[in-house]
Amino acid sequence: MIRHQYYCRYLLTLVLCLVGLNFWGLPSQATSKNFSTQPQLPKNQLIPGASYYNLKVIPGSEQSLTLSITNPSDQTKTVKVTPVNATTADSGTIAYVPSNRQDESAETTFTKMTSVAVTVQLAPRQQKTVTLKTKIPANGFQGEIRGGLFVADLTPSQSNQQSNSTQFHLNNRFAEVTPVILRCNIDQKLRTNLKLAQVTVNPQPTVPTLTAKLRNLTPAAFGQLKIQAKVAEKATGKIVATQTTDQLAMAPNSWFNHPITLGKQTLAAGHYILKLDLTSGKRDWHFEAPFQLSKQQVKQHNISLKKATPARPWGRWLLISGTTVSLLIGAYWLGRRQAHS
C-alpha cells in the first residue's frame, strides 16, 4: 500500500510538470536612475509631504516652483528643466511629457504661464536647486491647470553591443517629471464636458482599425473612464464588433485617439456606425458617428482574420493526454499487483 501511494505521488508530480510546460512567465526589467529630483513645496501646498506640487494660487500673483536636483554619480551631468503641459496619451492616461497635444478649448496653459526652460550642470555628487516662475492671470482661471517640470539628462550614456561582427551604439537618456496642479478656487465643481470630434479609419497596410478622437473640454482632470464601443451596419443595425476599455483618465482640456478594432467577423464594404457609451462615476455620455469601409479595407480585415486564426495544438494535447492516461493505468496496475503480492 505504501508503494502504491508512492507511485500515485510520483504520477501526480509528473502530470503537473507536463501541464506546467504550457505556462511560462516573462522576466521583469529593472530601470536605473542617474539623477533624482525633489520639489521644495511652498506654503500654499494643499497636500503636505506630496511628491508633486498641488497649489492654491492667487490671481495676479507670481508662483515660484523650486526643484532640487541631485547627481549621485561620479560623472558630470547636464540636465534641462522644461515646463510641460499635462496631456492625454492615446493609452488613456494623463501624461506629463513634452507634447503639442493641448486642446484648443484651454483658457490658458501651464507653459504659457511659466518661464522658459533652464539648463543646469551638476558636478559628481552635487545638488542644486532650480526655480521656475509661473505668472497667474489677473482674472485667475476656471478649474485647474495641470503641467509638470520635465527634467532630462542631456548627457547620454553609451553602451556597445556587438552581434555578428556588427557594432551597435545605444544612447540612453534619463528623465523625470514632477507634476504641477494649480487651482484658484479649490471648492469649484465643474461638470465634465466630453465631445467626440471625429471617427477615422486608419490607413494601415495590413489591418484597418478605427480611431475615435475624444475631447475633454473641461478645465479639470477625471478618471475611472469606461468606454464601450459597438460597430453596427448602418442599413440593418446589426452589431458586428464590440470592445470595452476601462480605467482610463483624461487631463484638463485635452484629447486622445481611442483605438477600436473591427472585431472578428468578416465584413462587407459599405456604411457603418460607431456607437460609444462612456461612463465616469455618475456621468455618462453617448456618441454615434458614421464611417465607411472600402472594398480594399474589408479585404485586408477579412484576410487578417484567416491569418490570425491559430492552429489548434491538438497534437501536443493528445500526446500529453495519452501519456497521462498511460501513467494512470500503469500506476493502477502496479498498485493492484502490489496489493495482491
TrEMBL record:
Quote the InterPro entries the UniProt record gives: WxLIP_HBD, WxLIP_PGBD
Where in the numbering of this chain does the WxL Interacting Protein host binding domain appear?
167-302
**Keyword terms of this UniProt record:** Membrane, Transmembrane, Transmembrane helix
Q: Which residues form the WxL Interacting Protein peptidoglycan binding domain?
A: 35-151
Tell me if Transcription is a UniProt keyword of this record: no
Task: Give the source's domain of life in one word.
Answer: Bacteria
TM helices/strands, residue ranges: 314-335
UniProt keyword annotation of rRNA-binding present? no
Organism listed in the record: Lactiplantibacillus nangangensis
Q: What is this protein called?
A: DUF916 and DUF3324 domain-containing protein
Specify one Pfam family. WxLIP_HBD
